[in-house]
Each structure stands twice: as structure tokens, then as C-alpha cells.
Amino acid sequence: MPTLKPKPKKPGRPKMAKGEAKGTIVPVRFSPEERKRVESAAKASNQNVSTWIRSTLSAAIGG
Fold it and tell me: Where in the sequence is the domain holding 56, given as residue range(s)?
């Protein structure tokens, strides 16, 4: 009787638990000048660009 080999692990990050992922990706395009301004504002706040955009939008919509 042949022995079964365990499946090799898939490369990459393991899947997150249901409800743990952030959610939907919203594609947005910025002009080069807008991008520089967003990056500068994020850097001044000691945040990465994604976190800065998320917090700024949340404040703007009252969340």
C-alpha cells in the first residue's frame, strides 16, 4: 500500500480568517502632483499612504 505524502504548502501569505480582511479595494488614480501631495501629507503624519487616505476619508465622512 503506497504512503500518502502531505500536500506541500502553498507559497504566499496564509488566508485571513473570515471577517478579518479589510474588505474591498477601491482603485483611484492621482495626478503626479496629487500623489506627491498625498505622500507628503502621509509622511508629515508619520503614516503610510494607505493609512493616511483611510483616516482622512473617515474623518471627512464622519466615521
Answer: 29-63
6-62: pLDDT as tens digits? 888 888 888 888 877 778 889 999 999 999 999 999 999 999 999 999 999 999 999
CB 29 within 8 A of CB 39: no
Query: For residue 21, what is the DSSP state?
Result: S
Whether 38 is covered by a domain: the verdict is: yes
Q: How many domains is the chain partitioned into structurally?
A: 1
Terminal alpha carbon distance of the chain? 61
Residue closest to 54 by CA, chosen among 12, 20, 15, 23: 23
Overall residue count recorded for the chain in this entry: 63
pTM of whole model > 0.70?
A: no
